[in-house]
Amino acid sequence: MEHTTINTNGINLHVASIGTGLAVLFLHGFPELWNSWRHQMLALSSLGYRAIAPDLRGFGDSDAPPSPESYSTLHVVGVLVGLIDQLGIDQIFLVGHDWGAVIAWCFCLFRPDRVKALVNMSVSFPSRHPTRKPIETFRAMFGEDYYICRFQVNLFTF
Question: Which residue numbers delimit the AB hydrolase-1 domain (predicted)?
Fold first, then answer.
């Protein structure tokens, strides 16, 4: 397994990779890191694929910008597009889990020209409600104790 740091769109991104051939980009969930994919990376590299798994923006050894606005899906996907540009890859097979699946859906919507195929686990495509924000939908469905709702609380108010 090779570990590198790649600067893309102003972010230093920690990236693990192994193998050669067609590229598979793995996107981890929350609160995971690249190593959630280590077994799949080894298996696919043994079959002739190039397996790539970054620590996403704000996770692990990748940079964590302090501004919440820096974590929009446009920013996160932009860094990933920059990553595959830096690696000289035109198209990828994209694999996402949990938070990584959300980012993978957005990647496909924003840059379908860069994706050969998508495999997502644990998160279905989140269709948008025309008048309600996603956090309001989560609160209505799961209540205030749902982890995504809990993370909306400013921790400094306690």
Answer: 23-130
C-alpha 149: how far from chain center? 20
d(CA 79, CA 36): 20
Beta strand 115-121 with 92-97: parallel, antiparallel or unpaired?
A: parallel
The identity of residue 4, as a single letter, is: T
What are the chain's domains? 2-124 (3.40.50.1820), 128-157 (no CATH)
CB 109 within 8 A of CB 96: no
Determine if the peptide bond prior to 31 is cis (ω within 30°): yes
Give the C-alpha separation, 27 to 13, whole Å.
13
